[in-house]
Amino acid sequence: MATILVKYTMSNNHTIVLRFCLTTLIGSAILLPTLYQPLLNSLWTFLKHNPAYQSSTFETFWTVFCYATIEPWVTYIFVQHPEWRLAAKHKKTDEPIRRPHGMRRPSRRLLEGLTYIAPLLLLDLTLIKKFASVPLEAMLVSGNYDPALARSNCRGNTCQVNFLMPSVHNFTSSSPLQTHRALPEAAPSSRRLALELIISIIIYDATFFAFHLAMHVLPGIRAWHAPHHTHAEIHPQITNQLHIFERLGLVLLANFSLNIIKCHVLTRTLFVPLFVWLLVEIHSGLDLPWGYDKVLPTGWGGGAKKHARHHAGGEGGLEPYFEWCDSVLNHSKAFLKGR
Ligand SMILES: *[C@@H]1O[C@H](CO)[C@@H](O)[C@H](O)[C@H]1NC(C)=O
Ligand SMILES: [Zn+2]
Fold this sequence. Notes:
Layout (H helix, E strand, L loop, with lengths): L1 H30 L1 H16 L2 H4 L3 H23 L29 H15 L11 H7 L7 H4 E2 L2 E2 L30 H28 L1 H11 L14 H17 L4 H18 L9 H4 L7 H9 L12 H15 L1
Antiparallel strand pairs: 1-2
The structure holds 2-acetamido-2-deoxy-beta-D-glucopyranose and zinc ion (ZN).
């Protein structure tokens, strides 16, 4: 009893500290943007002149880098803390806790990395990157088009750029691939960054909910989601155990969520580690004392527990990060049954 109490207060302290830090950070970013502007300006000046950051393939490699850092780290926590494993809670305490069946060593995962990178590189090297706040001329130049074309698309100072339609590179022998991405001149404000991050995560969460629901009910695309549900105990490596179309769908929905609100490129760069962290956490199979669902106000975040229940074949849990869409679905199901 005493240990339970101590554990409870400990985990409570973690979440209180985290809650305080997050509220301060987000609150000050939104309310006091002048505080952060000098830092953001120098960071942006550095990034926009950096050749790796200017590369059209930057986001693909950045995502792989974030995933390859975060997932092994959470896997390490998984192995070090069997007491946090959701599956272990229902076991007798004297039973040895094993490494879950199907966990792979890093050397065996090269192919997994390649199947992620290949289709995205193909898109990176053929499509023009169109980002908000970038002059149309700069985008045209990056895609090997005549910047004078911009004139026919612009009236006064407003240019018509459709951020949701793909535009193909103008392939020539001197410019055979889209290797460059045009970046905005100015840094974003911390207010813009914080709001764009929050809104894009919420949009992604709702759109992936719909995609996930479709993959559970539509016969044609059900097979895409099957590899993700074939495992014994859930563990962090399951995060990326995906059919190629499901993985592509996930990335394109994230891209859509960022494009629809015309995010700054720096928001996109920060979105990646946040997005990957949350994705790995919900697949961790761990009841982390500092889980994001405990840090957020009660009833907002779905967390690892809800997602583990979904993986174990339970009802609901289709929404990756939050609770809102799932609860709307549950309520409407209950309403229809009641009639
Ligand atoms: C993501 O969106 C950007 C901006 O519209 C676009 O240029 C890029 O081609 C998209 N990336 C992928 C991988 O589709
Ligand atoms: Zn599922």
